[in-house]
Amino acid sequence: MTQSVPAAAPPAELTLEERLTLVNTAMTARLDEAAVAYEVNTAHIPTEPVDLADVVTVPLTPTLQPPPASYPTPVAALLQRAHHRLLTGGWCSGALVDEDGARCMLGAIRAEARGDSGLEADAATVLLDAIRRRFGDHVDSVPSFNDAHGSSRVPIRMVDQAAGLADARGL
What's the whole-model pTM score? Predict the structure, then answer.
């Protein structure tokens, strides 16, 4: 007589969350095992503490580099000076100049234009063109673009790119 073996119930399908939890648990166990193996395999290696003063050799106070050679055209040279001013004097948003002397994009252009409103307007126009080339025509103005950023990285880079654009246009 043959005895029949009851059929095993099919495994229940796991949800995505249950599968992720299972994989996370398995990976954590493997990482723990690897950490223990590393400690065991390297315990015999003698080590000495490293003094960071022996490794890090930078000047305590940063030295400012002189500005690069100026562009030959007036608008490009103005934008290049404004870029250098933002790098050395600081960038701000929400004001032309803040209490620490940092300037926004337009404030740096205005300071470097030294009262020449026509040159200042031309530089602001080229800067807005450069911004719109990169970010689209929805940008209303240089001040609104400047104030939309929380850090100086993008605004300062755009002033530098505008200087190159002005030079390429012969302005």
Answer: 0.60
